[in-house]
Design brief:
The protein has three helices and twelve strands. It is of the alpha+beta class. It has a single domain, classed as Immunoglobulin-like. It has a six-stranded mixed beta sheet, covered by helices on one side. Strands 4-1-6-10 form a four-stranded mixed beta sheet, with no helix packed on it. The termini are far apart.
Length: about 170
């Protein structure tokens, strides 16, 4: 939990230095929603990926854009299905999320984290993660083979979850 707090604090400091570049066309997943906080009373968030599920061909580009009413930094982090939080306790104790945040912010800001074990660059499996700034956008090619189903979430807001089905 401490690592998550430190990483989120690092986001606040580093995000002012991030410049978002124009992205290629393709499938678009929007970040929508809002949040509220009242000390000793309420934490409320409707942040979500929309659409939650997309179908793409291998080699196709997917763009993630924030349209939320209250802009925040986000990640698109691919996890093993068993690592995706399923309840509030798992959201606040998400080890895979902490690992992704450490990869993005442990030694300065890293916008793209790649699992290079497979030799592919792009979204193709667990360990791949993209960071984008408040109000920003980022794109990546889906390089997973047809038949793959990718589960992703925002490591900063782990209740934000989505799926990519890769087809021919």
């Amino acid at each position: 939990m401490r690592r998550r707090v430190l990483a989120i604090g690092a986001v606040a400091v580093l995000v002012t230095a991030v410049v978002t570049v124009a992205m290629a066309s393709g499938n678009v997943v929007h970040v929508k929603g809002n949040q509220a906080f009242e000390p000793n009373a309420l934490i409320y968030s409707t942040f979500r990926f929309s659409p939650e599920r997309i179908v793409v061909s291998s080699g196709e580009t997917v763009r993630f854009e924030e349209d939320a009413a209250f802009p925040e930094p986000h990640t698109v982090t691919v996890l093993e299905p068993t690592d995706v939080p399923k309840d509030a306790a798992e959201v606040f104790m998400c080890d895979a999320c902490n690992e992704a945040l450490e990869a993005h912010f442990g030694n300065g800001l890293v916008r793209r984290v790649e699992d290079d074990a497979d030799g592919e660059y792009g979204l193709d499996g667990p360990g791949d993660s993209l960071f984008f700034a408040p109000g920003g956008k980022i794109a990546s090619t889906v390089t997973a083979p047809a038949g793959t189903r990718l589960r992703f979430l925002c490591a900063i807001h782990p209740w934000m979850q989505g799926r990519i089905k890769v087809v021919d």
